[in-house]
From TrEMBL:
UniProt keyword terms in alphabetical order: Hydrolase, Magnesium
GO molecular function, one term: hydrolase activity
InterPro entries from the UniProt entry: HAD-like_hydrolase_sf, HAD-like_sf, HAD-SF_hydro_IA, HAD_2, HAD_sf, PGP-like_dom2
Pfam families cross-referenced by the UniProt entry: HAD_2
Protein name (database record): HAD-IA family hydrolase
Amino acid sequence: MNILWDFDGTLFDTYPALVEGFVTLSQRDLNRDEVLRWLKVDSKTAFKHFGIDEDRRAEYKQLDIKYSKDSKPFEHLEEVLAAVENNIIVTHRDRESTDYLLEKYGLTKYFKEIVSVEEQGFNRKPHPSSYEFVLKKYDIDLVVGDRELDLLPARHLGIKTVAFQNRNIEADFHLDSYAEFISLVFKNKSL
């Protein structure tokens, strides 16, 4: 089985860092739950909702990197990664911080390829260009993400989807924990 993974909020619990970075960027005492709700849509929408100029995106990325150094992978993730033939990441996160977190937890060995969307010149998700790039090299059986924008390109390309910790988006499977992954997804006859 070949799986394409989102990174933030899917492989690693980076939302606390993303929220702190966003609140710091805003220079206001924003409600963190509200910030999280908007970031779960996408950062562009959150910027607009809270009146933050898109020109400050680079500053936000730097704050995210600073705060996310302590982010951890989700529980039971490693046993799922070990059971997969090819794991590929497609992320908006920069390559250096992605590599840092994977190496910190000894997970680098499980990934065949990491696509850092903007650094490699692709349009941001949900545009399918980064997924199409991956499909030229690998037959992808499944895409795992926590936001609609992670799963839209997969559905557009006819790939089965898993929504992680988000039952409010359309997906073939919904998981709240990777402890459920092998029994729910791997044993499904339609894959």
